[in-house]
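README, section 4: Worked example with a bound small molecule

Sections 1 through 3 covered apo chains. Here we extend the same pipeline to holo records, where the ligand is supplied as SMILES alongside the sequence. The molecule in this example is zinc ion. Nothing else about the input changes; the structure line simply encodes the ligand pose together with the chain.
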Amino acid sequence: MLDSPVQQIKDRLSITEVLSGYVQLKKAGVNSKALCPFHSEKTPSLIVSPSKQIWHCFGCGRGGDIFEFIKLVENVEFPEALRILADRAGIELRKPTAQEIKIDQDRNVLYQINELAAEYYVKVLWESPQASEALNYLRQRGLTDQTIKNWQLGYAPDDYHYLENFLAKSFDKKDIELAGLIIKKDLPAGRQATAEYFDRFRGRIMFPILDAKGRHVGFTGRILKPQDNVGKYVNSPETPVYSKSKIIYGYFAAKRSIIKEQKVIIVEGQMDVITSHQAGFANTVASSGTAFTLDQIMELGKHAKEFVFALDSDKAGTMATTALLNTAKQYSIIIKIAELGEYKDPDEAIKKGMHVWKDIIEKAPHFVEYFFHKALKEFSISEADGVQKIKDLLLPLINSVDSSILRSHYCRKLASALGVAEASVTAELQKLGKPEFKQLPKEEYRKKDRLEWLQERLLGLVIRLKDKAVLSQFEPSDFGAYANVYTSIYTSAQSPELKTAFDLLEFGVQTEIEAQGLDAKAELASAARELKRVLLKQQMEKVSAELKSAEQQKDQQTVRKLSEEYVGLSKKISQLQS
Ligand SMILES: [Zn+2]
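The generated complex, written as structure tokens:
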């Protein structure tokens, strides 16, 4: 019998290899440690065991194998985690259905066409004399040759049919048109054209656009020499694989860094993304247009708790910021706005020096703070009109702050800036009503309760010490979600499907016992005692509730029976304590 795909994947991919793509692993004896990406912490409590191929976090209690990790970190369900890891391990999964194959093939053709076009543009950039000006331009903008290659920047020759003819050798023109690379001529009836199609991108520096999985979905073409009636930028049209409102430029390259830092830097242009990455800020992305959509915010919000918007300091930048805030502020994300000051755009600041950009990002103020400065600079508080404008701008922003401490901080600040009583600002704010905050669909950090912790600890110690005697005083139901583990140990049944659970339970106690120098046997005894006590207390609460209702119904017989039971339970508890 063949191994299951899950086992095949586990055989091929080591846990350290998979996790190190998302967290910084540090050696700790035979294991490794990392800061947990699933809860915020300053000292590492996520432990990885390479020999057992499992991980466990002592902070939030999460743990499992590589599949569990990918599920959580990529925010996907098991089938998608399986697909991601199968891809990485080079293992083919089940045969897809005919319909799936058809959709896949249709999309695959579009990815392939875009990818081949990207390769073509790259070749032109590096080899054609026609592109030397474009290459010089990119170098003058401060990009290294390696960066130009990494981002697959290219050049579309200034001709109507070069790309069409090149791609037509391998693909159908209808598909090339569907991919958005050539345009069908729209001629009046009766007129004959020498060619049916022409290239969309001509005489432009080409930035390939990849989706979150690194597939080629489209392009942005930037003109080299400004011309009348010609846009500075031309984008691929919407296609079955390219949706402007969903694609985030640079996301594929930035994703791991965003997960590691839990922070994303959002800039406006492709060039800004590339130079920011080159300067060491690999968590930088850009929206495809000027507006940032809710879809894009939600996608980034899966991994980032903090958004730093670093948009061009012209009017468009300000407008984009305001539009952005209207969606982003509804979600409890920390939003900061980088102040570019004298610099026109991020690219210009980065060119001035890496430290300049680093400073701008690190000192980026909270968005309310940002608009405070802006409003007080723009409007005069000595005129009634100015005061009104400041109030109109700032009150809704202050009202959208989630934290009540920060809200009252800004109220005080606004009152003192305007020279009015704080109470009048608070009163105005109350008129606006409290906004509702939506949570991004991210799994909440759930702290384990004591009962669950004791169940895991006891079973882990039993497995570790290979001593199941202590289990005889319990029943399967005492172990909640681990009832099957209890039964399997207690009856010495072979349960291959529980192997990971066994490993995890043992690994959890083992690392803690080693780290804290505890006596495993003593820990086992005390865990058993405490679990017993917690279970007895739960039972007493249940009996006490039943007793109350029996008393209300004046059911003397049941009352007597339950009272006896209650006394019995409390005796058992006091015996445990002695
Ligand atoms: Zn954790």
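What to look for in the output: Residues 36, 38-39, 46, 57, 59-60, 62 surround zinc ion (CB under 6 Å). Residues 520-552 form the longest helix (33 residues).

Section 5 describes how to batch many such records.
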